[in-house]
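User: Reviewer 2 asked us to show a designed sequence for the structure in our supplementary figure. I'm pasting the structure tokens here. Could you produce the per-position amino acids so we can include them in the response letter?
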């Protein structure tokens, strides 16, 4: 199959669910089913290969060392396919058996979907889904990791389109992800962390970036934490589908229970990439006031907005020698009065390297303008005590409310970041002292002034044009009323 045919084939399963369950719930059934089929087909392929090597020794072919994952015979796809009644129960039991057989790698990976609820998914619907995915082998020789991984990302994007306002919880615009990865420039052997990892796109892109550059991507150490059970499972499946096995993605609340610790302190990382949930109100502010990990060093954020709780967690998670981060935020974090003191303390750390303003609609299903906050624990000497502001809000393509960056846009942002110099009406290098003199206000428009193209327009000419446009309006309204009569 071509990439397009593969995507169409995988998406075809979702069309079988239309009308039976909400579009936002497709992902909790489609992804586990697809992953189940993939690991069974790969297991069969590995079994056949070992069988040939051993001249038909069945016992040898079943040895664990010949397989990525163990698939118990009674939990195989083909066994479930033979089931005609209580298909959901058979699926659920098979998935649980596979999780138990691979406790270190697959525990909880199939999520908690209600497969046995026949009001939602009848035996007929599940049988149709299973038969749909049985049409093609999804073994490695049939569908390589890269190909299936790209198709999996395509599904994540399609489900995001169907999920309405909840999409931002698990999907970050991939063109923005590409820009953030370029800026961070992760290297082989480095650790990369996303404290709110969603479906794993930011982590995954770092590995794919190295792969594209011909560098050793398998030595990259990927760490992620995600509060939502299904989304964390999707992130883990996403890694495996792309052939990446060295990662640790943990389900949990990053603010209340950070998953990655070292000697009772927060583990630190070379690269941190994140698109945290913005302005969340349901968080444990009281515990944060007495945080055992010292993440309240700049202050305690207000109950109604945990943004600076996440920002301080990221600060404390940076490697002391070469920690750096690129965080996607709405603009409010740059200038809200209620966070002014915390913002000033952040500036005094001299870790903020750049503030990159992006256009509207790049947050999934939200018209808000986004920006990337770039931090570095080891700024080059000429960047110390300075912050680069870039106003790129016009560098975006808006396609019916779903915006994206072109390769030219990404290249323009990246070159401006690397140059770290003033560009009229686009980029401005400000000193930390200058920003602090404005009470720590980091509003991009305050530093990068937009060009006023009609500054030389005289009052007389402007008034004449205004009167003329008024006459045109009267004329068109007269015609409209005549048509209506």
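Assistant: Here is a per-position design you can include in the supplement:
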């Amino acid at each position: 199959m071509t990439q397009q045919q593969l995507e169409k084939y995988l998406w075809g399963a979702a069309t079988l669910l239309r009308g039976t369950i909400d579009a936002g719930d497709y992902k909790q059934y489609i992804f586990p089913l697809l992953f189940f089929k993939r690991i069974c087909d790969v297991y069969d392929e590995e079994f056949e290969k070992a069988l040939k090597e051993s001249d038909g020794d069945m016992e040898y072919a079943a040895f664990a060392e010949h397989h990525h994952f163990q698939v118990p015979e009674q939990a195989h796809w083909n066994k479930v396919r033979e089931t005609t009644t209580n298909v959901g129960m058979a699926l659920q039991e098979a998935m649980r058996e596979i999780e138990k057989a691979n406790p270190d790698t697959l525990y909880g990976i199939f999520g908690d979907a209600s497969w046995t609820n026949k009001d939602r998914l009848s035996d007929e619907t599940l049988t149709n889904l299973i038969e749909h995915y049985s049409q093609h082998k999804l073994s490695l020789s049939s569908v390589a990791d890269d190909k299936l991984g790209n198709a999996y990302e395509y599904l994540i994007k399609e489900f995001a389109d169907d999920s309405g306002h909840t999409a931002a919880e698990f999907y970050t615009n991939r063109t923005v992800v590409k820009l953030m990865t370029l800026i961070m420039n992760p290297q082989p052997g480095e650790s990369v962390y996303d404290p709110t990892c969603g479906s794993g796109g930011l982590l995954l892109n770092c590995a794919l970036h190295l792969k594209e550059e011909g560098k050793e991507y398998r030595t990259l150490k990927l760490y992620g934490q995600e509060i939502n059970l299904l989304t964390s499972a999707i992130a883990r499946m996403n890694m495996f589908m792309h052939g990446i096995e060295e990662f640790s993605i943990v389900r949990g609340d990053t603010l209340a229970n950070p998953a990655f610790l070292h000697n009772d302190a927060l583990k630190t990382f070379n690269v941190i990439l994140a698109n945290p949930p913005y302005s969340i109100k349901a968080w444990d502010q009281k515990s944060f006031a007495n945080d055992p990990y010292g993440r309240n060093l700049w202050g305690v954020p207000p109950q109604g907005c945990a943004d600076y709780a996440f920002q301080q967690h990221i600060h404390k998670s940076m490697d002391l020698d070469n920690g750096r981060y690129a965080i996607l935020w709405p603009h409010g974090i740059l200038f809200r009065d209620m966070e002014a003191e915390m913002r000033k303390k952040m500036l005094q750390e001299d870790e903020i390297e750049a503030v990159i303003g992006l256009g509207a609609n790049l947050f999934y299903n939200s018209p808000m303008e986004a920006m990337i906050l770039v931090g570095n624990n080891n700024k080059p000497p000429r960047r110390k005590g300075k912050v680069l502001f870039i106003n790129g809000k016009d560098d975006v393509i808006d396609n019916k409310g779903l915006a994206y960056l072109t390769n030219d846009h990404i290249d323009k942002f990246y070159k401006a970041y690397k140059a770290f110099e003033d560009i009229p009406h686009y980029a401005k290098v400000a000193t930390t002292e200058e920003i602090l003199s404005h009470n720590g206000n980091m509003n991009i428009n305050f530093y990068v002034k937009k060009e006023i193209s009609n500054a030389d327009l005289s009052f007389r000419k402007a008034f004449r044009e205004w009167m003329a446009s008024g006459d045109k309006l009267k004329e068109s309204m007269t015609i409209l009323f005549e048509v209506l009569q």
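For the response letter, you might also mention the following. The chain has a mean pLDDT of 92. The two ends are 60 Å apart (CA to CA).
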